């Protein structure tokens, strides 16, 4: 008996040693190196398509948007596979190998002369030889592998990190809240490095510039497996979508039932204990009462053992409330798309703006055009520690106030609008002031880039934490796939807007707004149009946020602030 007890004690101590910030170190390290690999390729990819594959700006932007759309849509499928079948660890592991294969394939398109069009010294790349079908096919194959890799890594990396904290404790909630900020801070460092060092190396040699991200991705795979003995593993709970479908079907079958607007005890609901591994028991809420009918017990619904006789006719209160969580989040999710459209618009066209501006720092060094966006990432890198370590604790000490997640997201939307307005103003100034002799300084772009950095600091981090906090634990991969899904929707919407404006904004005598020669186009009008969409979106977000009901249970903003978030 003592031997059995000793064995159980050792197993308990081993489990207790798992998780926490030690496991997070490996997860963040793997995520950082993986992002260095993937972002290192995408950071300057527009110029790669323009200068190596000889695509026009609109054509290159559409290829980029469609690839980014696929890359950001794939996490929804990755989340389904993770939550329903193989779990987060295996999903990240398999996806990492696909990402590495994709980087190797894209690198080959730069290394092998047969896999890209012949070099062309013509200052107008659109007048050079077009890529053939084989060259485009290999390139798109590599991009496809990268999308598959992102589809597995992106929806699981943050939830896998959150799994390392016990959210039933205040320390666990603090650690989780701080993890989101540190996650985005490491991402910002990666973005700065990719848009400076890696982009500069790509201006020297595309082969070197792509080989380094590929090597870093290989290191990410190794580091992820090194930390296996420290991770907390959460088993998959089955398909989330089948549970959602069962709730809808059960509610429809009982649509003629009459239930009170407020639970008065006259109706019996099926409310068994939650499954092992589910930390939060969701109480019955008054929103979306039509779904509650799926959990009402009627004659013949239960077996003699108290289990549902027909799973498609009776669901638990927990299952009903999980569907309500998803329905509540969808309007807030949709309101974040326009802010991402603003960011992707700026990231795409600011490269072409920078190429028309004076990028010299001193007499001998010229900033690569794709490196200009690093100003946004520096803003994030400076602001996040200030927000996490100074602003949040100070506001709590002075007024016991903390921004809610929805308030942070709303502030970010406002910054996105301001960024688009100032970007339009700067482009108007550049187009009217530039001559054959003088060029506007590229540092005029600093203001819209700083504003966009503040938008990301408030809105994007707020979205990540919001989606992860408003779903039960076993749905967290699905929740986390909503953020990249916002990027997918934004990329496809951006592609539609670019194509439509390019086609209809010009006439026979007047070039279109997005003309390949920015001096003849009206890019500032396009920025103003995006800003106008942002104003409409802000009103829509305000309406959705005003009516939003947070998930029952502890929230990060409910933590009593005694000191800054968990020291690492």
UniProtKB/TrEMBL annotation:
Q: Where in the cell is it found?
A: Membrane
- Indicate how the chain sits in the lipid bilayer: Multi-pass membrane protein
Keyword Iron-sulfur set for record: no
User: Membrane-crossing residues?
Assistant: 64-86, 93-116, 136-162, 182-201, 207-226, 332-355, 367-387, 408-429, 441-461, 482-505, 525-543
InterPro entries in the record, alphabetically?
MFS_trans_sf (IPR036259), POT_fam (IPR000109), PTR2_symporter_CS (IPR018456)
Family named by the database record: Belongs to the major facilitator superfamily. Proton-dependent oligopeptide transporter (POT/PTR) (TC 2.A.17) family.
- Official protein name in the record: Protein NRT1/ PTR FAMILY 2.12
């Amino acid at each position: 008996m003592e031997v059995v007890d000793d064995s159980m004690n050792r197993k308990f101590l081993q489990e207790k040693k798992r998780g926490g910030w030690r496991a997070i170190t490996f997860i963040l390290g793997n995520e950082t190196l993986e992002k260095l690999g993937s972002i290192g390729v995408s950071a300057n990819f527009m110029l790669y398509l323009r200068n190596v594959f000889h695509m026009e700006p609109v054509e290159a932007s559409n290829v980029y948007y469609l690839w980014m759309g696929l890359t950001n849509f794939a996490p929804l499928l990755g989340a389904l596979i993770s939550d329903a079948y193989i779990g987060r660890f295996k999903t990240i592991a398999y996806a990492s190998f696909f990402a590495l294969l994709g980087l190797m394939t894209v690198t080959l398109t730069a290394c092998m002369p047969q896999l890209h069009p012949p070099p062309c010294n013509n200052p107008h790349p659109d007048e050079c030889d077009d890529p053939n079908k084989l060259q485009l096919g290999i390139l798109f194959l590599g991009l496809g592998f990268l999308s598959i890799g992102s589809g597995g890594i992106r929806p699981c990396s943050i939830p896998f990190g959150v799994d390392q904290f016990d959210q039933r404790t205040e320390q666990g909630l603090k650690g989780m809240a701080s993890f989101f900020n540190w996650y985005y801070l490491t991402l910002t460092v990666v973005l700065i490095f990719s848009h400076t060092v890696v982009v500069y190396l790509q201006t020297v040699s595309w082969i070197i510039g792509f080989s380094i991200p590929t090597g870093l991705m290989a290191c990410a795979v190794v580091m992820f497996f090194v930390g296996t003995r420290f991770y907390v593993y959460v088993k998959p709970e089955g398909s989330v979508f089948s549970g959602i479908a069962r709730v809808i079907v059960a509610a429809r079958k009982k649509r003629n039932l009459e239930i009170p607007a407020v639970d008065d005890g006259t109706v019996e609901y099926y409310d068994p204990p939650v499954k092992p591994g589910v930390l939060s028991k969701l109480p019955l809420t008054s929103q979306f009462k039509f779904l509650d009918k799926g959990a009402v017990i009627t004659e013949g619904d239960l077996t003699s053992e108290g289990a549902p006789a027909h799973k498609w006719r009776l669901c638990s209160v927990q299952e009903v409330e999980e569907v309500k969580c998803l329905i509540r989040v969808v309007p807030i999710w949709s309101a974040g798309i326009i802010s991402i459209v603003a960011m992707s618009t700026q990231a795409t066209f600011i490269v072409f703006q920078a190429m028309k501006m004076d990028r010299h720092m001193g007499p001998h060094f010229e900033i690569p055009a794709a490196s200009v966006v690093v100003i946004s990432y520096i803003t994030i890198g400076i602001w996040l520690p200030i927000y996490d370590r100074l602003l949040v604790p100070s506001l709590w000490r002075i007024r016991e106030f903390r921004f809610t997640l929805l308030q942070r997201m709303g502030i970010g939307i406002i910054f996105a609008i301001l960024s688009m307005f100032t970007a339009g103003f700067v482009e108007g100034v550049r187009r009217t002031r530039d001559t054959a002799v003088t060029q506007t300084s590229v540092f005029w772009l600093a203001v819209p880039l700083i504003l966009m950095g503040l938008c990301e600091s408030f809105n994007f981090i707020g979205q990540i934490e919001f989606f992860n906090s408003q779903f039960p634990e076993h749905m967290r991969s699905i929740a986390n796939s909503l953020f990249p899904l916002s990027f997918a929707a934004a990329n496809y919407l951006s592609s539609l807007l670019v194509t439509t404006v390019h086609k209809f904004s010009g006439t026979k005598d007047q070039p279109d707004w997005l003309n390949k020669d920015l001096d003849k186009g009206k890019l500032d009008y396009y920025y103003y149009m995006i800003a106008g969409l942002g104003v409409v979106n802000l009103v829509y977000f305000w309406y959705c946020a005003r009516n939003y009901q947070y998930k029952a249970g502890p929230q990060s903003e409910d933590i009593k602030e005694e000191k800054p978030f968990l020291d690492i």
